[in-house]
Design brief:
It comes from Crotophaga sulcirostris (Groove-billed ani). Its main location: mitochondrion. With 280 residues, the chain is an alpha/beta fold. It contains ten helices and ten strands. 38% of the residues lie in helices and 18% in strands. Helix 6 links the parallel strand 6 and strand 7. The longest helix is centred in the N-terminal third of the chain and has 17 residues. It is globular, with a radius of gyration of 20 Å.
Length: 280
């Protein structure tokens, strides 16, 4: 019958589409993987990733936290975490992460000169990301935070399809142009069956340090409106604050250097809200 033929065709299509897709394999020693992503660059994703990783560790000293910089072309974690040097190798030829502030970190920035551009095609980038994931002795981590590159390309798909991910957090400013790409990022993770834990609204408001007047430089509440549209939560609302920028540039992230500041309380709020549910 026509119905049975249609069903057979659907089954055949499903079989063809499933061929060649990698099977997800957990990273040894890591309990939960959370990815921080943005559709557009320049929205403060790496800064947020660094401070959320530090806040997770600060909120519970019994938890071990790692940070992976998956942005091969523009690694930021070495500078923000005040780390330099090449990883040592274990007897099993695995790279040992560099560590600062109690966070184990791995980045392409540890493997190339700071000023050297990475001029690679897609396949080489994918191979590098695979090595950063699989050929690192992470030890035992409760959380591995992955700072994704901007966009919805090969790296995002490869990471999502190769390892089990507890959840994704989307970072965006309230600006309309950034929100367009943030929506694409959220939809991409949904298509590859990665739960989106929520959105973080970054650089939401600037307060003049002299007169205390508040200005919404990038617009107001754009991320909140997008979250409602997508049926997602807003995990945090982080202001545009000079201390956040200065401290990350100097390798002393605000969670470490100004732990009592208002901005840090908002980061702690975001880190608490983004914790995925424990696996059964």
């Amino acid at each position: 019958s026509s119905d049975s033929r249609d069903e057979a065709l659907r089954d055949k299509r499903t079989q063809i589409q499933s061929r060649g897709l990698p099977k997800q394999k957990p990273i040894e020693g890591i309990k939960q993987v959370v990815v921080l992503a943005s559709g557009k660059g320049g929205v403060g994703k790496s800064t947020t990733a660094v401070n959320i990783a530090l806040a997770l560790a600060a909120n519970d000293s019994t938890k071990e936290v790692g940070l992976l910089d998956a942005d091969v072309y523009g690694p930021s974690i070495p500078k923000m975490m005040n780390l330099k040097g090449n990883p040592e190798l274990t007897p099993k030829n695995l790279m040992r992460p560099l560590k600062n502030y109690g966070i184990a970190c791995m980045s392409m920035g540890f493997l190339v000169e700071e000023t050297a551009p990475v001029v690679w095609r897609g396949l080489m980038v994918m191979s590098a990301v695979e090595k950063l994931l699989r050929q690192v002795d992470w030890g035992h981590l409760d959380y591995l935070i992955i700072d994704m590159p901007p966009g919805t390309g090969d790296v995002q798909l490869s990471v999502s399809q190769n390892i089990p991910i507890a959840g994704a957090v989307i970072i965006s400013t309230p600006q309309d142009v950034a929100l367009l790409d943030a929506r694409k990022g959220a939809e991409m993770f949904r298509k590859v069956h990665v739960p989106v834990l929520g959105l973080v609204q970054n650089m939401s408001v600037f307060q003049c340090p002299k007169c205390k007047h508040e200005t919404h430089i990038f617009g107001a509440d754009g991320v909140r409106e997008l979250a409602k549209t997508l049926g997602l939560d807003v995990l945090g609302d982080i202001p545009l604050h000079v201390n956040i920028r200065e401290t990350c540039d100097s390798g002393q992230p605000v969670v470490i250097s100004h732990p009592q500041s208002d901005a840090v309380s908002l980061v702690h709020c975001a880190s608490d809200n983004k914790k995925p549910s424990p696996r059964s």
